[in-house]
Design goal:
Layout: H1 8-26, H2 37-55, H3 61-87, H4 93-107, H5 111-116, H6 134-154, H7 158-179, H8 181-186, H9 188-201, H10 211-230, H11 240-254, H12 257-264, H13 267-274, H14 276-293, H15 300-326, H16 331-356, H17 380-383, E1 394-395, E2 408-411, E3 421-425, H18 427-439, E4 445-449, E5 458-459, E6 467-468, H19 472-480, E7 487-491, H20 494-498, H21 515-531, E8 535-539, H22 548-551, H23 559-565, E9 576-577, H24 578-584, H25 586-591, E10 602-605, H26 608-611, E11 612-613, E12 618-619, E13 622-623, E14 626-627, H27 637-650
Parallel strand pairs: 3-4, 3-7, 7-8, 8-10
Antiparallel strand pairs: 1-2, 2-4, 5-6, 9-12, 11-12, 13-14
Length: about 650
């Protein structure tokens, strides 16, 4: 069994793990599999925590959770409180709102489940989420809550049940790897087996110099290196490649061998291992805050500065915050642990309080100027996308008695029984709906859908064309039977119609081989509306580009810092050649070409000429010095006013 004299190499292993994670975040194209450092941490956590339980003469829940609070909460509170207070001076309203959501989730160790629904770890958008790495801390804390209870109930017989728990967790990983990559990545259910393998190590008996151990160490090391360099299997992580990383970590914990021991006990790795927790917490917020100001890229010199600042800050937290608190003795430790627990909860409550002062509309928050925004004036380029017209108040529970699984909205003060025209679709449809209310208040418009609501049929697999959300047919059938509904405006992002994974590129459409099947699904959805003689208008999707805040630097409240970082409004990679856009959209255009026999009453509204200038063959994010986009590939309210007022209300007066 492992003895205390050999624990030093585990600090070195922590140093390797944090080195992998930080290197991946700063140099993702160099070390594409560095994210696997988190898996190394999981194995180490399982081993260390269970080892502590095994060395206790008498198990005490109070002592166990006091030790965890003393170890984790000080740096965690410092980081979450810092990003809460400083975020207001760096982030625009909408990303700041998301930041506050993550602070609240992190304060109750629910961050992993929050990010399941809001972020893919490997997305570009992850850089705008300062607390994203706290998902793994949430997984560990959930484990800390459950395992001592299991250990106390089962005690020595836990060994009989552990293999079954590992098997269940591994099976969950295989299942969710195919059906929900986000859940698979962030969930304790699919990560438990990694921690549990660490648990098994603390009681294993073995010969450190056996031939099997030596061969395993060499083979696993050879397998791990290409995984870390090439990022093998990142699409469905954790998976088989994760198992290789976990087993390699287990062998290094159990029997590192002389060569590995000398490497893992080098002063620099031991030092990094000692400060690995505060370094893990603080390095990503620094990168995220910087990326918010200069999103398209980080120069090499700036990366070195960020790394130095992260290590120095982590050392200060370790030296002057963590160590003094950990040295406390007796009952004072329990008092401090309780105080830290309340302080962490207070941080989450404070974030909720700050959030309540922000606009809450899914669109207006992105380009609104809240009363306490300190950076709105400095980022006037972004707010130029706001509408010049008053924003209507909207009731998002307008049709609560109709098709309850959907979002029904109308102007505040009106009921669904008054609606005689609807906009139906995803979040892009909501933008058009609000623009219609601004520009045509006398007409009684309603909205059905929003975001990923099951309104318009989507295809799943790009090859097989498996239908996702088949219940969408209920919506078109229901609308066709409503006599008072005369007009239906259909709006959907191209990526939703084709189930594209990328929010800012149409390149995946080229892979689609089942266009006719997709078209049949869409035609079948529209057919009841056509048969019922509804006036149906489909607004062709706008050019897909990156989020404006990725293309342009966001000025903070600190002018000296902006000058140091060299924040610029210069556009980067945010143009779209018109001929390329038409080429990339060819299958989407084919989807919207209906024959008179199929759908006689369908009319396509094309806004391409507004977003693109054929004389210079370019689609741009600005027109008349006004921003045409708001977030991701969604158009701004300013652009929506034009699309609605010119293309619908003027060019198509019959819509009324």
């Amino acid at each position: 069994m492992i003895n205390k004299a050999r624990i030093l190499h585990i600090d070195g292993l922590r140093g390797v793990a944090i080195g992998l994670v930080v290197a991946y975040h700063l140099f993702p194209n160099v070390l594409r599999g560095g994210f696997a450092g988190v898996d190394v941490f999981f194995v180490i956590s399982g081993f260390v925590i269970h080892r502590q339980l095994m060395t206790l003469d008498r198990f005490s829940f109070r002592e166990f959770y006091t030790r965890r609070a003393i170890r984790i909460f000080p740096s965690l509170i410092f980081v979450t409180l810092s990003v809460t207070l400083l975020g207001r001076y760096f982030f625009l309203d909408y990303p700041y709102r998301l930041l506050l959501n993550s602070v609240t989730a992190s304060s109750v160790f629910f961050a992993n489940h929050y990010f399941i629904g809001s972020s893919n770890y490997f997305d570009l958008e992850s850089a705008s989420k300062p607390l994203l790495p706290l998902w793994s801390l949430a997984v560990e804390e959930q484990f800390y809550l459950l395992w001592p209870l299991i250990f106390w109930v089962l005690f020595k017989s836990y060994k009989k049940f552990l293999p079954t728990l590992i098997l269940i967790s591994l099976t969950s990983t295989l299942y969710f790897g195919l059906h929900s990559s986000n859940y698979n990545f962030y969930s304790l259910q699919t990560r438990f087996w990694e921690i549990a393998i660490g648990i098994t190590l603390s009681s294993l008996k073995y010969d450190t110099e056996s031939r099997l151990i030596r061969v395993a160490r060499i083979v696993l090391t050879c397998l791990v290196i290409p995984i870390l360099i090439l990022g093998l299997g990142e699409e469905r992580w954790p998976n088989f490649y994760t198992l290789v990383v976990v087993l390699a970590t287990a062998v290094l914990i159990l029997a590192p061998g002389q060569t590995s021991t000398r490497f893992l006990t080098t002063p620099i790795l031991v030092f990094l291992g000692r400060i690995s927790f505060p370094l893990y917490l603080i390095h990503w917020p620094l990168i995220s805050f910087y990326s918010n100001m200069k999103p398209a890229y980080i120069p090499l010199f700036d990366k070195i500065l960020l790394l130095t600042l992260a290590i120095f800050s982590a050392y200060l937290l370790f030296k002057f915050l963590e160590i003094p608190i950990q040295k406390l003795k007796g009952f004072s430790r329990t008092i401090i642990a309780l105080f830290l627990s309340f302080l962490l909860l207070f941080t989450g409550i404070l974030a909720l309080s700050f959030k309540s002062n922000l606009p809450d509309s899914s669109q207006t928050i992105r380009q609104s100027i809240s009363s306490n925004s300190s950076i709105a004036e400095r980022n006037s380029w972004y707010f130029s996308g706001r509408s010049d017209l008053p924003e209507p108040e909207i009731n998002y529970s307008c049709g609560e008695d109709v098709l309850k699984e959907l979002v029904f909205a109308c102007e505040k003060g009106k009921s669904w029984s008054q609606i005689n025209a609807v906009v139906v679709g995803d979040s892009k449809a909501e933008i058009v709906f609000r623009a219609l209310l601004r520009n045509d208040g006398g007409y009684k418009w309603g909205f059905i859908g929003g975001g990923l609501s099951p309104v318009i049929p989507l295809t799943g697999d790009l090859v097989s064309g498996t239908v996702k959300r088949p219940q969408s047919s209920n919506v078109s059938d229901w609308m066709s039977k409503q006599d008072r509904l005369k007009t239906v405006v259909v709006v959907s992002a191209t990526r939703n119609l084709f189930s594209l994974a990328n929010d800012y590129s149409l390149a995946e459409i080229e892979q689609i081989e089942n266009l006719e099947q997709i078209k049949q699904q869409f035609t079948s959805w529209l057919k009841p509306l056509d048969t019922a003689k509804k006036s149906v208008y489909i607004i062709r999707d706008n050019p897909t580009m990156r989020d404006p805040t990725y293309c342009h630097g966001v000025y903070s409240a600190f002018r000296a810092l902006d000058k140091l970082v060299q924040v610029s409004e210069e556009t980067k990679d945010c143009f779209y050649a018109l001929d390329e856009f038409i080429k990339d959209s060819s299958k989407y255009i084919d989807l919207l070409e209906f024959s008179e026999d199929d759908l006689a009453s369908i009319k396509i509204v094309d806004s391409t000429d507004y977003f693109c200038d054929s004389t210079i063959n370019t689609c741009n994010q600005f027109k008349n010095n006004r921003l045409l986009y708001s977030y991701s590939d969604h158009i701004s309210d300013y652009a929506a006013d034009y699309v609605v007022n010119k293309l619908l209300l003027i060019d198509n007066p019959s819509i009324l």
